[in-house]
C-alpha cells in the first residue's frame, strides 16, 4: 500500500496564503469544517502556502490560540502560569484586534524537509516518518507538487481497525 492511498487530497484541505491574518485563517477553517462535515475527516489544520503556491507550513488550533494569547515578552524568561494569567486576560480582551493584525507566517508551524513524502512511498515509510519525527502529518508530493496530507490520525484508525480484525479470528 502506498501513502497516496491513505492521504487526504489537497483539494479537501483548508489552505491560506502566509501573508493573510489569523481572522482569515479562522474563517477558512470554519468554512472548510462546514463543507466537509463528515465523521471521517474534520479539518483541524490550515495548510499555509507561499507566493509560488508551495505548501510551506501549517496552522494548527494550538498555533492560532498561542498566537492570539501568549505573546511572550522578551527578556522576562519563562513565567509561571500564575504570572501569565493577567497577560492572558489582557490578550483575550484584545483578541479581535490581534486576529486582524497578526499574520499567519508569524505563528504557523513551518515544515521541515522531513515533513514531506512522495506519494509513491510505502505506508511503512510514512508511518516511520510520522513516528520518528513526532509529526501529526506529512505533506504528500508528486515530484515538487503537493498532492495531499498523510495524517497520523488516519494511520492510527487504519491500524486500530486491523488490530481489532485480527482479534476476531
Automatic annotation (TrEMBL):
Name the record gives this protein: CBS domain-containing protein
InterPro entries with a match to the protein in the record: CBS_dom_sf (IPR046342)
